[in-house]
C-alpha cells in the first residue's frame, strides 16, 4: 500500500516528504535499532554541533560507535559556528 502511494508522487512531492517536519529523525531510528545509546556532545574546544548525533551504542551485546545527521533545530542550513571556526583556525596557526 505504501509503495503504491509513493509511486504516484512527482519529484517535488518526494522532496516535500523527505523534508517533512514530522518524518522520523536519526534519534528515532537509533532507539529502534540499538539496545542502548549514549549520546556524546562537544569537542576539544567545548563546541557542540546540534546537527550531528554521535555516541556509543550496543547492539546484540556488541559495543559500536554511531555518527548520524540530525535536523537543525533552528531550521536553517548548516554553517560553521564562530566557536568551531575559531577552534579550527587556532589548530592551523600552532
How would you describe the overall organization of this protein?
36% of the residues lie in helices and 22% in strands. Strands 1-2-3 form a 3-stranded antiparallel beta sheet, covered by helices on one side. The longest helix has 12 residues, at 82-93. With 94 residues, it is α+β, with helices and mostly antiparallel strands. The termini are far apart.
What are the defining features of this structure?
single chain; 94 residues; alpha+beta; flat
Strand content: 15-25%
| Major β-sheet strand ordering | 1-2-3
Q: What percent of the residues sit in helical stretches (DSSP H or I)?
A: 25-40%
Order of helices and strands: HHHEEEH
Low-confidence stretches: 80-86
Element layout with pairings:
Blueprint lengths: L1 H6 L3 H8 L7 H8 L2 E5 L11 E8 L2 E8 L12 H12 L1
Antiparallel strand pairs: 1-2, 2-3
How would you concisely characterize the structure shown here?
With 94 residues, the chain is α+β, with helices and mostly antiparallel strands.
